[in-house]
Specification:
Bound molecules: pyridoxal-5'-phosphate
Strand content: 5-15%
Radius of gyration: 21 Å
Number of strands: 15
Helix content: 25-40%
Largest sheet: 7 strands, mixed
CATH class of the largest domain: Alpha Beta
CATH architecture of the largest domain: 3-Layer(aba) Sandwich
Distance between the termini: 62 Å
Structural class: alpha/beta
Number of helices: 12
């Protein structure tokens, strides 16, 4: 017997554990200090009232024989898929119900989708990157290549004809950089993938933070994307489902290679290895798309946007270069004074007790950068911004 030796090739992720250790050590040495956390990408506001109401009603359904639900369709209930389809339609994208697969969140599907791809495929990911894209492929023994996301290209790498890859990951608005592609830029990627035969795995987990006209909310806003792309979405950041767990993946029927259909394969994979998202959770997710639900989650997103603006305004005032913050909950800033990511982390922690995430933890190009998130409370964010201003304007 042998275990999968590719697990030996995964870089140990020290990022968040190192952050936690450093914060714990500081707290122990400075008892009573007030530490402000703008590091982790988890939401802080509770679920919207419309969602809570739907969850309660669904719990009641489960208590009665006539409305009890056992195993559901692995790919999701029609009531939710219909709502998702309507949402896409409002963004000008026509989907069929059986192109939508309800999931327990984007992370699982991003990892699981690899079941339908050949092991020999090569993979192209941006650097810096959401680590799940890299680690899931390394676990499967695939070769991973990187494309540079730097200040020079606004952290939005574009296709390069000299690089051949079978699977390309795009994340927009991006974690960690907050940069977001325009529809025009996505058009170039779609053209490139259709020409080369590559498949784009498009992560739209932060789509709801887009405010600017002309930015892509879905890769399927671009004609031709259905023959080269799969899209991952999530209720986590949209509606505070990080702990409730629900998302969806769009696998177009037009996506075929070598006579094989990605949609049929994914359906086969899901019906074999997945038994669906709980009925109760799907009812809660469907409530997100009601008029009341949309209004309420809009308020929550506006709350986080206010934080993002506070942080962005602070950087503007201090003359610090950054991306994100405008169409994203993440602000990706260049560490001042030529500090490295970890030097700046220590500098903020030691001097003003503000915790962020060192960019170097997301890839080589992240060195010298730093991520702050807008998912804290307004009060904590305001206090953190005041402290940062006080420190850096000296
Ligand atoms: N994709 C990106 C870019 C993320 O940052 C995250 C979570 O932080 C996810 C996907 C995972 O989302 P979910 O909670 O739906 O699994």
């Amino acid at each position: 017997m042998q275990f999968n030796s590719h697990f030996n090739d995964i870089a140990q992720s020290y990022l968040f554990s190192t952050v936690a250790q450093k914060v714990a050590a500081y707290s122990a040495a400075n008892p009573g200090s007030s530490i402000l956390r703008l590091g982790i990408g988890d939401v802080t506001l509770p679920l919207a009232p419309a969602v809570i109401q739907a969850l309660h009603a669904a719990v009641d359904d489960m208590s009665k024989k006539e409305t009890f639900h056992g195993y559901g369709p692995e790919q999701g209930y029609d009531f939710l898929k219909e709502s998702i389809r309507g949402y896409y339609k409002s963004n000008g994208v026509e989907l069929e119900n059986d192109e939508i697969f309800v999931s327990d969140g984007a992370k699982s599907d991003i990892g699981n989708i690899l079941d339908i791809f050949a092991g020999e495929n090569t993979v192209l990911v941006p650097d810096p990157v959401y680590p799940v894209y890299v680690d899931t492929n390394v676990m499967a023994g695939r070769r991973v290549m990187y494309m540079n996301a730097t200040a020079k290209n606004g952290f939005l790498p574009m296709p390069d004809d000299s690089v051949g890859a079978d699977i390309i990951y795009l994340c927009s608005p991006n974690n960690p950089t907050g940069a977001a592609y325009t529809v025009a830029q996505i058009k170039e990627w779609v053209y490139y993938a259709n020409k080369s035969g590559a498949v784009i795995l498009y992560d739209a987990a932060y789509e709801c933070f887009i405010t600017q006209e002309g930015l892509a909310r879905s890769i399927f806003q671009v004609e031709g994307a259905k023959t080269c792309a799969i899209e991952f979405c999530s209720f986590s950041k949209t509606a505070g489902f990080t702990g409730t767990r629900c998302g969806y993946t769009v696998v177009p029927k037009a996506l075929t290679r070598g006579g094989m259909s990605a949609n049929k394969m994914w359906l086969r994979r899901q019906t074999t290895k997945f038994n669906g998202v709980p009925y109760i959770v799907q009812r809660g997710a469907a409530a997100v798309f009601t008029a009341e639900g949309q209004r309420q989650i809009g308020e929550n997103i506006a709350y986080y946007r206010k934080n993002a603006k506070m942080i962005a305004d602070c950087m503007d005032e201090l003359g610090i270069w950054y991306t994100g913050g405008k169409n994203s909950p993440y602000i990706w800033l260049r560490c001042p004074g030529g500090m490295s990511s970890w030097q700046f982390f220590d500098y903020l922690l030691q001097n003003v007790q503000v915790v962020g995430t060192p960019g170097a933890g997301f890839g080589a190009n992240g060195e010298g950068f730093f991520r702050l998130t807008a998912f804290g409370s307004n009060e904590v964010t305001q206090e953190a911004v005041q402290r940062i201003k006080g420190l850096l304007s000296k």
